[in-house]
Amino acid sequence: DKFNHSKPTAMKKMLLLFTLLITISASAINTNADGTYLISSAEDLCEFSSLVNGGRRNINALLTNNISMKGYDYTPIGTNTMSYCGTFDGQGFTIDSLTLSLSSNGVGIFGYIDSAHILNLTAGTANNVKGKAFVGGFVGDKIGNGTARIERCGHEGKVTGSAENAAAFVGCVHSGSLAISYCYNSGRISGNRESAIFCGWMG
User: Fold this and answer.
1) Residue 144's closest CA among 48, 57, 75?
2) Is the dihedral of CA 148, 149, 153, 155 positive or negative?
3) What is the spatial distance between Cα 199 and Cα 165, in angstroms, rounded to a whole number?
4) Per-residue three-class SS string for the chain
């Protein structure tokens, strides 16, 4: 037999590599029966952000632990072209030790949201969020025509905006509507014009 069947062919090697790439690119975050992502670590939160920013703007999440973001290079959830529209339930847990120091607009745990529902979450005392304009301890900017809701949340960290619209919860509401209920702030807010505790500006 002139063919050596003991060695993988070039086609088999390609298929093996393709399978490996698919395995690597698949999400490592656990989900429940409803397909909601169960976020238990800083790595999970970073990956969830990547999923949303990559196009899956309607996915939902549950925190299952307190999460320390110390030492992690974090990208806010939601962009100005891919605003977050899902439900993010902190289940009473805290995201802490998050440091963001960006020169861009739309900075927070969530960068840009539309019809998102954020609840039962605390932004911890060691969080330090800095940006240019539209900076929030929770959300940088609310865009789109939907209604965003933030309820039963607490902000305890520091927010700094070098330009306008800094706030504990939402830096700016450019369009649509926003409802904030049963929330508190014990952190420090520093910003230029049109900055406030709960929301810097509602347009």
Assistant:
1) 57
2) positive
3) 8
4) CCCCCCCCCHHHHHHHHHHHHHHHHCCCCEECCCCCEEECCHHHHHHHHHHHHCCCCCCCEEECCCEECCCCCCCCECCCCCCECCEEEEEEEEEECCEEECCCCCECCEEEECCCEEEEEEECCCCEEEECCCEECCEEEECCCCEEEEECCEECCEEEECCCCEECCEEEECCCEEEEECCEECCEEECCCCCCCCEEEEC
The C-alpha atoms of residue 85 and residue 62 are separated, in whole angstroms, by 15
Half-sphere exposure for 115 (CA within 13 Å, toward CB)? 5
> 156 φ, ψ to 5°?
-125, 0
Please name the amino acid found at residue 140.
G
| Cα 69 to Cα 187: distance, rounded to the nearest angstrom | 18
Strand order in the sheet with 170-173: 110-113, 139-142, 170-173, 199-202
CA dist 179 and 196 (Å) reads 16
- Going by C-alpha positions, the residue among 81, 5, 4, 70 that lies closest to residue 42 is 70
- pLDDT tens for each residue of 143-178: 999 999 999 999 999 999 999 999 999 999 999 999
Structure tokens of 7?
């060695």
pTM score, two decimals? Answer: 0.86
Q: Tens digits of per-residue pLDDT, 123-146?
A: 999 999 999 999 999 999 999 999
